[in-house]
């Protein structure tokens, strides 16, 4: 090893983990309480006051199956999608696990302060929908991690997540509450924001000599199969992602159908472009692992609207093509001309499809008619109530488009600022010739080409006596 | 490479994907609409007209968790079960992904035309049950893929799926609607049909010199572990498969219990026979990966009936034995004497247990009594309503048996016809010495025995600059 | 191979499987019936008698999604967590599959006799909650397997499971019914019992020359990634584990929230301690794979109580630390001084956190107030009804603590007895130099360093002609 940078994080990583976890305990103690559907006393009172006869009407039964699907997407989906590198699988799945676990706690607080703070008691009430929203919130930081994979230290990732969750909560508040946009699956607030946030950080952290780690920047046969676990769990559960917090009843039902259809369409166009781009028609695992998901990203806003099944097919069709072209042309060009290194290609999977999804949502909202939705349905779908009772669908479409721009602006500006913070020489990040290498932050088992014969005792990697 | 056949699919695969996907968009535009539980306007009206007070009675909440389990079985279950070959894991999981994604779209149309076409409007209404049925439908083509694994091109697989879904929709209409059979978990319509369909295709496509690819026809240690992911997700979620579209209430409840019990029993007899068959009592991963699932296949028809828990145990007991014996004796003999090469052994896992499941269902139906089911229960379970109000359980049993024969006939005849189509020399299939090899259709990363030292730049497999 | 012990199980394993499976069929025939929610006739009558208007109130819809999550934990979670050894992945996931499949059947009977036997008819009624409980019951034997991994034969594991399930049913009856403890997620009855049961067996089976197998006692890069599949599915679905059989409504809702929060906290403290313990701050996969789960184990009893979100955070915080310290110091010391070899470190993941979870539950129960729970909520949460209507929370806390001691006593005493049985020289266990090796009980594919060239036919590991 000729790396000269110090990647020792023995002080900084434990310090960050302990300080932040203790801060979480204190803040949870001050602020977080069960909501009226998860508190035993309040739920009994709630049932009486709302004339509910059966426990099955607890929000838990509407949302818990979708929550668990989303949870799998966050930890197994994102985690395993990032195991594709030949020697960074531990970091891919392990750091994803670490920052998601921290992020959801901070998200419960940040989102709680903006959306669920009781002004009388000063307390935040949480229920299953809060857990889903926390998972959603942290997804944007995991997307950003995709651009940085292999090039940053876990301490830096904790910082990315701390600021990512904070920025998310603010832009979400502006977009959903102030602009009153609808964005149940988060094309804007999750994917466009997270994508541009990660790209901006990666741009600031540009490594001119990253090709010194080129030997480790590819995949192996089995690491590509591991990554397919991530891809498939993301793909299969995306209908749950886009429907998890939509309206009870037809809203969840329709969002799941639309997403299912769009994703199926993405797969075919991804395969088509991937095959066309090789002179012998061979498919590229990078495309199959990523671009097949673009339809789900792009349906994040419009899935709950009456976009129609063929509308969903068209969205998936186009986004599969656009995303695959991105992997073929845009990512290499961005690295060459923009000096932007994007390890997982989040530009093509999250940033662009997320942005498109925001605008698709705007168009579909603007095109909504009372004939299709019904009067009551329009109110229900777009929440035209209270201060927004008189808003028209055309205005709504305009605000949806504006929301998309807000999310991108937050991502770019926030990412640049966070990137500058991460350039401080205190974070234990790897040197250019030491990227994409689990050796820097993990005890890696020695790979034995052949299992040594019986009675040879000199193997010092054992399960039960880890080196101290 | 000394293969002489041209496996270049740069024109044909993109052409097929684009043409079919565009056709899907047009046909969805003409035919497919949301049903009354997923359309925002219709659901509001439906609640009023049916006096429904809570959104929890939307069919989404009855079926969505089961749908997601089935979805995992289709994409991760079938996909990873087919990763066992040492150098065909990309093709196993990747082509499964491709054809399932195409198949579900075509299935929504085909099944819609037969079962959900509104004669007044000419439109097909879809909801969550349609998605489950589409997944079921495509399962039969994925089963057929199991017999063909490693020996066909992705273009051929698209043809297999196009015809497979079409034939499925017709046989399903005959069996479920005309013969009025019950087959919620698809022993007949999915497994027996899909199994014999794949076997017939494979028989027509017999490769006399396939042993030229023998070096690649086995597994490696880690590919066998990958395949266990597929096995376990199929095994765990099979109760959801068999209960996903059964009657609300006790129907779904009972189908899940029966399947759970039958599967547990299959595991023990599979292990017993596998151990007995080796001279030192060693277990064979092929059996554990496959025959353990036979109990689920065989319960596909009877799971919703009152087969009793010990009846389920007996079914699992017998099918574990039969299926393992199939792997030990029947598959080798079929290859030797019938000239039928069955890569995954679908004969033993799907064709025979599916056929047995059909007949078991017939027997259990014929043995149904008013004492056990109650008068109302008999009507609910067997749908003795409308034109079929006067049918007796004995007649029902006869029709169930007839339905099994129909499904087999469709599989065999359809498979022979499709096999002949696939023998046209235009599909880009591999030569005999090039089977089971991902190199034919995938850009495969170069395997490095040892990671080269720092500062060596000649690795040309990188994530960000794929060859064009 | 120079092993001298005979690991041939060609007679014993099939014999045990067949005898026990046939016994299951007979006993199921005599005892097991559908309950009133899964029997078509009884459910129709039940709806009338209980004035239920919608099938959605069938217990299936309250519990089935959680059941499937628990099912994944048992088969994929525990199974893949045990694939970490370089050459025992087949045994890890395969034997887990075998003994869980047997165990759930025996558990349905044992738990049925104690909890669901109708005194009039002599029959056991089963429904979805019975399936969850059977999965729970078998979890304790799988935990015990963790201590024995690689050192016992599958026949011994069947014996461990037979006695493990039996002991579980008895201690569960004493703790839940006689002592009237609450333990929905099983800190006491599952984890403390299972942990000490496995440790006691392993202690009795001490192998002084186990270091002769040291070459196989570590992991490889990819086997560690496989194990992360197990870790993550356990981690993600633990909220379902702890909420699966709690009270409908706020009970399930609150248990899921508390567990989610505790687990997130465990991850951060595990990472902190793991990093601190290495001189360069590197993380150890052993800790990430295991100690991150400690918060879920420790919330098994208290999750359904009003422990408050910050209380959950504190539990996770402490248990992540304690568990990681266990892996660092206690496991090596136990091996050295106590002569106790614990392959997976279940002492640190199950035994100690389970015991702590029991006492945490006792404290939280004793601290319950009518102010927080409400009068009706106290009765609902602690089942202060019937014979226990007059019990105070303080008494309840005392009984909870007593229950924890009972579970540990059952584990230790039962484990010693079972360990002595397993020392009989009839079980086909491996010799000391043959442990951790799949070769003993599995046909293992030959690993080819490089795929041989085309036209070489001498590979004799093929899919379709297994050696007989």
UniProtKB/TrEMBL annotation, chains A, B, C:
Annotated localization: Cell membrane
Residue intervals of the Ammonium transporter AmtB-like domain: 59-441
Plastid recorded as keyword: no
Membrane topology: Multi-pass membrane protein
TM annotation in the entry: 12-32, 70-88, 95-114, 126-148, 155-176, 188-206, 218-237, 257-276, 313-330, 351-368, 401-422
One BP term from GO: ammonium homeostasis
Gene Ontology cellular component list: plasma membrane
Residue ranges of coiled coil: none
InterPro entries assigned: Ammonium/urea_transptr (IPR029020), NH4_transpt_AmtB-like_dom (IPR024041), RhesusRHD (IPR002229)
GO terms of molecular function: ammonium channel activity
Keyword Disulfide bond carried by entry: no
Xref: SUPFAM superfamilies: Ammonium transporter
Keywords from the UniProt entry: Ammonia transport, Cell membrane, Glycoprotein, Membrane, Transmembrane, Transmembrane helix, Transport
Subunit structure: Homotrimer.
Family: Belongs to the ammonium transporter (TC 2.A.49) family. Rh subfamily.
General function of this protein: Functions as an ammonia transporter. May play a role in the elimination of ammonia in the gill.
Protein name listed in UniProt: Rh family, C glycoprotein a
Species, as recorded: Cyclopterus lumpus
